[in-house]
Every structure is written in C-alpha cells, then in structure tokens.
Amino acid sequence: MIKALRLNAADNVATLLEDAGKGETVLVISEQNESLGELELLQAIPFGNKVALRPMKPEDHLIKGGVAVGKAIKPVPQGQLAHVQNIRSLNLDIPEVMINEIIAQMGIEVD
Amino acid sequence: MQTFRGYQRADGSVGIRNLIMIIAADECAEGIARAISEKTPGSVVVTNYNTCMYGGNEEMIGTMINAATNPNIAGALVINMGCGSIAPDLVAGPIRATGRPVETLTCIKESGTVSTIREGLKRIAAIVDHANATEMVDAPISKLFVGIKCGGSDTSSGIASNPSVGLAADKLIDMGASAVAGELLELLGCEHILKERAVTPEVFEKIEQLISDEEKRWHVEGTQVETMSVGNSIGGLTTIEEKSLGALAKTGSKPIQDILRINAKKLEKPEVPGMYLSETTMLCGGSAMHFAALGCQVILWTTGGAGFNNPIVPVIRVSGNSQLINEDIDIDATGIMRGEDSLENVSEEILKTLAGVINGEKTAIEDFGYAYCSLIQKDQRVERLLSIPAE
Q1: Contact A102 B188 (CB under 8 A)
Q2: Domains and CATH numbers, chain B
Q3: B→A interface, C-beta within 8 Å
Q4: Closest partner residue to B236 among A48, A67, A91, by Cβ?
Q5: Residue A39 lies in a domain
C-alpha cells in the first residue's frame, strides 16, 4: 500500500511517498515508521504533496513538522489534497497567476 | 565519538586534513599559483578572481585570509602580480600571526612569471616540510566545527536528508561539538522558531536584523528575483514557510548561540560550543569558502542529487532522492522516502561516516571534481543604497 508520512504528532497533514490516485487508500505512518491508520484520497495526490489527515475550516492552520506553515482558505475535508488551491501562506503569498499555473500544471481538482 | 585524530596547529585548532593554500592575491597571479600547485600534492589554489584592488573588496579578502587560517590548512604561499593594490603582506600578515608558515612572492619583483614559478616551488617545499612534521593528536570533539548546508533541494530534502542531518547535529552538540548553518533568506518565516531557540533576546534581535537585511538584498523593487518556483510547488511545497522550515530542519533543535557576521569589517567566530547561524551564503561554491573562513573542518550537505565538493573542507553528501542518487552521495536517505528507514537510523549513519572522515577517511568524491573556491562578498555600494550598515 502507498504510504503517507506524518512528520509530527501535532500535524494535520501527511506527505505522500509515492504518486497515489483518486479513491486510493493510503497507509499513514509516523517518523518512526509506525502505522497510524488508513485514509482514502478524495483526489489524485502526487509524490511529495500533502493529504489532510483531519478536516480543516477556513483560517485553520496547516501544521507540518509541528509548525504552522499556512492556513486554509476554504473547508478542507479529510483525505483532500492540501495545497495551493485551498491553503495560503501566513506571511507572503504566491501571486494568484502563479497559483493558477500550478493548479493547471498539476491538474488539481478545485471544488 | 569523543575524540578525533587530527593535525595540531599553533593557534590551538586541530585540522582533519593537512593542506597548503596557494593564494593568488590578484587575478593575474592565478596561472602562477596553478603552475606551482600542479607540482605540489596537497596544495589548494584560492584566487581573488575579480580584482587587484583593495578598497571595496575587504570582505572578500577577509574571507580569503580566514580560509587560510582554517584548521585544515598548515601554511600558505601568497602570490601577487605587483602592479595592483593588494600587497602580499596584507594577506600574509594575519595568516602568519596564527603561527602558520607563510611565504610571499611578487611576480614583477621576481623577474617575471617563469622565475616566480621556480622560486615559488622552492619556497613551498619548506612549507611542505613543515606540514609533514605537524604533530598528530587525539583532539577532544569540542575542537570540531561542522558546516551544514542544503543545495539542489527537492521534496526529499525537507523530509529525509535535512531532518536526518538536523538530528545528527543535535547529537553532535550533545557530544560537545559545534555546528553552523547559513542561508538567511531561507530562514524567512521561521522567526517564531528562532525566537524560541536563540539563547538570549539580543541574539534573536541580531538574527531578525540579519534576515531582514538579506530580504532587502533579494527583494529589490523592479527586479524579478525568485524565492519560490512553480517547480517547488509542483514538488509539493505549498508556502514559503513550508520551504523555509524544510531548510531549517537541517539545523536540528538545539539553542542558537549566535549568528556569525561576515562583512567588510569583521568575520565572527564561535566563542562557546553549540549550534550557530551565520551569514554564509546560500550559493554553494561560496558557502564552502564561508564555512572554511569560519573555521569548519567538515561540511554536511543535503541535496536532491547533486555532488557538491570543496578542496579545503571535505563535504559529506546526504540525499533522499532515489531517482537521482549516485556514486557521489555519501549517505543514502532514500529509505525514509520509501517509509522503510527512520531519521534515527540515518542520523547514526551520518555520524558514523562523519567519524570516519574526521579521522582521515575520504568522502565519496574527495580529491575529484572540486567546485571553484568562489569568494562571495556584498557590494558595499549596493549595501549603502539599500541602507544596510555593515556593523
């Protein structure tokens, strides 16, 4: 089964360790390689990208490595790709035109 | 790893290599320096490649001088052409003051290039004899200073190689060694963590100031300087904070003792053991020369898959990218990306390799394919225009 790595117990996202397809079930593991349970993906998520482990509301922080590295701009359900289509920086945003380019190049499903 | 077997220097430092530096104090002396080096095993050429003027180039010349007093350097030969402003003694004096043997040669006073090469080979022979007679000692680990840098970064860097190196750095600090990182622009967004890690509010203020100075240098209105690319985001990095935090992971979690300035007026060195930040550039070739000048004997370098190397400070390369890893990489962290290996395991591998390298074992590409010894400095005129004072 494809694995997703949760870096810190406080994290609400895990990073995909291989490309995974929509509807696929992935195994979430800890840094110590312990199994933390399974999760179904709501859209395809490529290697290195993040899946939401818990639902986020707008303004909720995205926690990775135990630290807030962004905030939700819309509801992010569990199993959803947490990326430029639903997350923004806390300090310095990527320009909107670049975000659209990233969404187009990655083929991200925007709801 | 309580001690390492190294070369005792007169200034109290202990080297893990026993090299001689040939300095071309101006660009016209480069060929002479190379000709002497080709016939002198264990010598390294460092060239002031862009000028023969002194005024305005103090920072670069400071880096050159301090690199020549790196623990891995036994002595130096300083050569200049003789028609510029950089007198060889200006460079040789501070090196000599550390107890290292130094010889100087000025081409136009030595009847030209061929005689300077002939005379240089004679003079360097005495420095080689001195280097070969250097006493080897069992040095306490507190004499070890490790540079930490990332380059050619990708998704695997923030997850596998950087945190593994960070954990190894924490263990090194616990043993009593010191380490230093740089790349201030990649600390943008990490200020809240650095505030907790700085040993005093004054150290945090200095960190904040130097990060903000660096931001001014890169974000100049009307210029297009990238801090985050579309490629970064397709690789999975969503925000600048996420990118910075991946980069910060390589510094581990120990308190930050100080941030060491490198500028036209000074080059600060650590005063107590521990973890440090510095103005070491994020550009790889120049960063190795900054680490050399700060006094690091060895560099831990994390990457997607490139093979950065420096002739003065051995570079231990760590990669977690299974598609790009090759024979240049010393530490394989790809198991972490497959979910089959742990940071703990890889950090132990890093310490095992490091213990070998500081006791004389070669890194994967030591002796081959070195990067150029780039001497990077901030332009004093631009600094003035950006209202950044050199303090």
Answers
A1: no
A2: 19-133 (3.40.50), 139-358 (no CATH)
A3: 154-156, 159, 163, 188-189, 193, 228, 230, 233-236, 238-242, 245, 249, 336-344
A4: A48
A5: yes
Burial of B107 (C-beta count, 10 Å sphere; 0-12/13-18/19+): buried
Contact B240 A49 (CB under 8 A): no
- Distance of residue B174 Cα from the nearest chain A Cα, in angstroms: 21
Query: Are residues B307 and B326 in contact, defined by beta-carbon separation less than 8 angstroms?
Result: yes
Question: In terms of C-beta distances under 8 Å and separation of at least 24 residues, what long-range contacts does B114-121 make, across chains too?
Answer: B116/B32, B116/B79, B117/B32, B117/B35, B117/B36, B120/B22, B120/B32, B120/B35, B120/B36, B120/B77, B120/B79, B121/B36, B121/B39, B121/B40
Q: Which residues pair with B129 in a beta bridge?
A: none
For B6, list phi and psi in degrees, rounded to 5.
-140, -175
Is the Cβ pair B242, A92 closer than 8 Å? Answer: no
Number of domains forming the structure of chain A: 1
Task: Please tell me whether the interface predicted TM-score (ipTM) of this complex is above 0.90.
Answer: yes
CATH number of A15's domain: 2.30.130.110
Q: Specify if A85 maps to a domain.
A: yes
Chain A interface disruption, residue of B233, B321, B344, B348, most A CBs within 10 A? B233
Q: With beta carbons under 8 A apart, name residues in chain B contacting A91.
A: 188-189, 240-241
Q: What is the CA radius of gyration of chain A?
A: 13
Nearest CA in chain B to A98: B230
Spell out the per-residue pLDDT of chain B, length 391, in tens.
Answer: 899 999 999 999 999 999 999 999 999 999 999 999 999 999 999 999 888 999 999 999 999 999 999 999 999 999 999 999 999 999 999 999 999 999 999 999 999 999 999 999 999 999 999 999 999 999 999 999 999 999 877 778 888 999 999 999 999 999 999 999 999 988 888 898 999 999 999 999 999 999 999 988 877 777 655 567 787 788 788 988 888 888 899 999 999 999 999 999 999 999 999 999 999 998 889 999 999 999 999 999 998 777 789 999 999 999 998 878 999 999 999 999 888 899 999 999 999 999 999 999 999 999 988 999 999 999 999 999 999 987 7
**Residue A87 structural domain:** 3-106
Is A70–B242 a contact, with Cβ atoms under 8 angstroms apart?
A: yes
Rounded to a whole number of angstroms, the distance from the CA of B374 to the nearest CA of chain A is: 32
Answer whether residue A111 is part of any domain: no
In a domain, A19, yes or no: yes
